[in-house]
Amino acid sequence: MSVFARLRSLLLAPFRRNALSHAIDDEFALHIDLRTDDLIRSGLAPDEARRRARMEFGNLTTAKETARAGWGMTWVDRLERDFRYAIRTLRRNPGFTAVAVLSLGFGIGATTTAFSVIDALDFRPLPFVDADRLVWLAEITPPNHEICAHCSWLTSPPTARDWATQATSFEAVGAMTSTEVSLDHDDVTESLRGARVTPGFFGLLGVRPVFGREFVATDTAHGASGVAIISYEFWKTRLGASRDVLGTPLATGGNSPRPIIIGVLPEHFRFGSDRSVWLPLTMDGSSRANRWLTVVARLGPGQTIGRANVELKTIAERLAAAYPADYREWDVRVESLRTLITMPAGKARFALFATTVLVLLIAVLNVAGLLLGRAVARRQELAMRSALGASSASLLHQMLVEGSCIGVGGGVLSVLLTQWFIRFVPRWFSVDTIGLSVDVNRRVFAFATVVSIVVGVGAAALPAVRIAAMNVSGTLRGIAHTGVQGSYISNALITLQIALGLVVLTTAALMSRDFLELRYLDLGYRPDSLYFTSISGVAGASRDPATWGVVAEEVRSRVAVVPGVVSVSLEHQNAMHPRIVRPDGDAERRDTNVTPVVKAVDLNYFETFGTRLVSGRPFVAGDAPGAPLVAIINKAAADVFWPRRSPLGRRVFVGDSASGGEVLTVIGVAANAERGELFQRHWPMLYIPLRQGKIYHAAARLYVRAGDNPAVLAAAERAIRETTTRKAIPFASDEEKLNNGLMGRRAAATALDVFAAFGLLLAAMGIYGNVNYAAKRRAREIGIRMALGARRWGVVGLVARRGVLLALAGSGAGVIGAIMLMRTFKASALTTTVATPWIFAGSVALMVVVVLVATLLPAARATRVDVVIALRAE
Amino acid sequence: VPARAALVPGTLDLLILRAVSLGRLHGYGVLLRIEQISNGALLIEQSALYQALYRLEQQGLLATEWGASDNNRRAKFYELTSAGRRRLKQETTSWTAFVRAMTAALSTGPMEA
C-alpha cells in the first residue's frame, strides 16, 4: 500500500468505523459457524458444538477490540480519551484554566477584530457588479509634490476626456467629485454631503436606481434643467419614502435653481462616504493642471489592469509631449477600485493588526509559561505514567490536546468578545464608505478557529517538548528538578515577554501621543467655544453680490453686539474659484502642483479663530475697495511659493487665465491651521479681505467665539432671524466638527491603547509569573548558599542582578522591535516626528520594576526560610 | 491430543503469510491451515489471529476480497500481495538461519544444569 493510500485509510478510519465493525462481526460469526459445523461433523451435538466453538473463540468483544488494534483506527479513540483526560485536568484547576482561557480569549478576540477590519476592506468583494473589473485611473504626483510625493492623485477634466476617448481597454469611463449641498427644510438650512457624477456613472458601477433613472448625456447639456438623484436613506428619512418625489424639485438652499429628483439609489449604496444628493457633472474645464476629478472605469472583457496600465501610460506620454508644463514629472497608474476605497483607512488597520498579534503572542507566552510551570509541578505524575508504559509520544500528544482544549476555549470566548469589539469598529475605520460592514462572517470565524488551535498547540508545544525530554528515573528519584535546560527555556520566555510587552507599550504610547499632539498641541487655532453657521442665503432671493454684502455685514454687526459674544467673523470660502494662484512675474514657474484655497475673510478673522500671525500684519479697515489689493497667506503657501525667503511684500497673481486676474501684495503670514482633516493641515491657503473680494453666494459662514452658554447662541440666532427674512440656522460647534473629523484617528488610538494596556497587563502578569516561578525554583539553591554561610543581602543581590540582566536584555530587544515596527508604519498614523526617548525609558523602567519585584519577593522569602526545610522541599 | 506449543512472539505473522501463500483463505481457513501444516502442534489464539490478519492487511502484505465460502456464506478472503510474498521469503530465510543458529548453539558440548 502506498504511503498515500495508507494515510487515506487512516484518515477515513473514523468514517468507516461502523462498516468495519460490521465486517468484523460478519467475519467472527462466520468463523464460529464454520467451527461449529466442523465440531458437529466430528460428532458433537449441535448445541454443544456451538458452545465449544464460542468458548474456543473467547470473549467476542475483547477479541474485537484486540483485532481492531491491528487496524490502525484507534487514534480516534485515543484522541477521544486524551480530550476527556484534558478536560478533566482543566476542570480540576479552574484558576489556571480561567487565566489561560481569558488570556487567549482576549488575545484572539483582539486579533480577530483587527482581522475583521482587514477582511472587510481587503478581502470582501466590493458590492458592485463584476467589481474586479472596476478600476481607478489616477495621476501620480511628482517627487516634488507639496502634499504627497508619488501618490495616487486626482485628474483634470481635459485629461479625463482624453483618457475616455483614446483608451480602448475600458468599457466605460466616468468621473466623480465631492460636493456639498445645502438644503432647506422646515425651519433650518443644513449642509449635506453629496457628489457630482458624469452621466452613466451608476451604470458603470453596475448600480441601478431602485426607481426613476440615472443621469444621461442630455442632463448635462447647456440649458438643461437641473436634475438630482437621491440616496435611499435620504428618500426614506427625509422624503417619507413616497414615490411621488420623482419629478418634484429638491429644496436646495441658496439661490440656485432647484433640481428635479429623477431617481432613488438602492439601499446601502455607498461610494466614498454617506452621500445624500447626487448631481450631474460635466467634464468641461480646460486647465490640465487643475486636478479635481476622481476617474473610475470598467475594464473591457478580457482586459487586465496590467494591459490597461500600459495603454494609459502611452496616452500619458503623448499628452506630456503635447503639454509639457502641465504634466512635468506626473505619471499615471491604473489601480483597482479597492485601492481608492481603502485609501482613507490608511495603514492604521495593519498597525492595529500588528499590535493585536503582539498582544496575542504575549498571551500565548503567558499560557506557555503557565503550562510549563504546571508541567514541571506535575513531573512526578508524568514520570510515573511514563514509567508505567506511556510513551513520550503519548505524553506529548496528551499535552498538545490539553493545549488545543485551552485554545478552543479561548476561541469560543474570543468570538463572543469579537462580536462586542466589532461594534466599535465603524468608529475607528471608515469601512462604511462603500457600504461594507464589519461582521463575523465565515472567513473571520475560520480565522478565529485556526488561530485558536494554532495558539493552543503553540502554547503547549514548549512544555510538551520539555516533558518529552524528561529524565524519568531521575525525576522519580526526586533529582533533576533544577535543570540548566529548564532555566534557559524560562529565561528565553521571560526575555521574549519583556521584549513584546515593550513593543506593544511603546507603539501604543507613541500612537496616542501622535494623536494627542494633533488634537491639542498644534491645531493652529482654538476650536473650543467656536461656533459657526451658514449665512449663504441671508439676502433672500437676491443674487446681487452687493446686496448680499450689505445684509451679511448687517448680520455680523448685529451678532457682534449680542452679550456674551466675544468675537464674530465672516468667512467666504473659495471666494474667487481661481484656477491660477502663483507668485507674480513668475509665469514660467509651474512646479507648484497645488492651487491654494482662497478665502475672503473680514478684519478680525484671525482673532476670532485664535490663529497666530507668523509675520506681517492683519487686515485693517484701510484694506478697502480702491486701496492696494492685499493678501495674507499661510505658512504652507509661503513654503511653496517662496521657500526660505520672506514672503512679505511679495506679489501673488490670482486669476483664471494668464491675463484675466489680479495681483495682490502679501502683507502677512498666518500659522497653518488644522481644520478637521489631516490632509488640510499643510494645504496652502490665501486669505483676502472680504471687502476687496468678489462675492458670490457660495459657502459663506459666520463664526462666533462665545462662552459655552447656550443662551448666547440662541440670542445670536435670534439676531440673525430679526435681521433677515431667512429661517433660523442653528449654530454648530466647530470643536465637534473637528472631533468628528478626527474621530477615526482618535478612536483608533483609543482602541490601540485599550488593546495595548491589556497586552501590557498580560505581559506583566506573565513576566511576574515566570520570573517568580524561576526564583522559587532557586529556593533550594538559596537554602544551600545560606547553609554555607552566604549573607542574606549577597544572595538577594545575586538574584536581583540576574533579574536586571534579563529585564535589560528583553528591553533592548523590545526597543529594537518597536523602532522597526514604527519604521514599517511610518507613512500611516504613526508619523511620529519627534523622538520620544522618555516613552522608551519609562517602558524599560516599568519592565525592570516588574522583574525586580517578581524576583526579589521569593528570593527574600527564601533567605528567611529554615535551611533544613528549604533543602527538604520538593 | 498432543500438547500444543505456545507461539514464539513474532512468529504468528510468518505462519499466516506461509498459510496464505498456499492459496487464498478466509479467517477460519487460515486457522485450519496453520493447524494442518504444523500438524496441530501450535496453539493459536483466535483474537490474536485476527489482529495479525488486520495488521498484515494494513501493512499491505495481504490483500482482501469478499467472496462466498464453501457453504455459500459471505466471507472475507485473504491473499498474499507481491510485497507479502517478498516478506515471506525474507522472514523464512532469517527464521531458518535463526533456528539453525539456535540448534547449533544448543547442541554443542555437554549440557549442564
Describe, in plain words, how this protein is organized in 3D:
The complex is a heterodimer of chains A (874) and B (113). By secondary structure, chain A is an alpha+beta fold. Chain A is extended. In chain A, α5 (94-123) crosses α14 (392-421), α23 (734-777) runs parallel beside α26 (837-864) and α24 (779-787) packs across α26. In chain A, the strands form two sheets. In chain A, strands 11, 12, 13, 14, 15, 16, 17, 18, 19, 20 and 21 form an eleven-stranded mixed β-sheet that branches. In chain A, strands 1, 2, 3, 4, 5, 6, 7, 8, 9 and 10 form a ten-stranded mixed β-sheet that branches. Chain A is 53% helix and 14% strand. Chain A is built from 27 helices and 21 strands. Chain B has 113 residues and is α+β, with helices and mostly antiparallel strands. Helices cover 54% and strands 18% of the residues of chain B. Chain B has four helices and five strands. In chain B, the strands form two sheets. A three-stranded antiparallel β-sheet of chain B has the order 2-5-4. In chain B, a hairpin with a 5-residue loop joins β4 (62-68) and β5 (74-80). The longest helix of chain B has 26 residues, at 82-107. Chain B is globular and about 55 Å long. The two termini of chain B are 30 Å apart. The model of chain B has no long low-confidence stretch (mean pLDDT 83). The interface between A and B is medium-sized, with 26 and 25 residues.
Quick summary of this structure?
The complex is a heterodimer of chains A (874) and B (113). Chain A is built from 27 helices and 21 strands. Chain A has 874 residues and is α+β, with helices and mostly antiparallel strands.
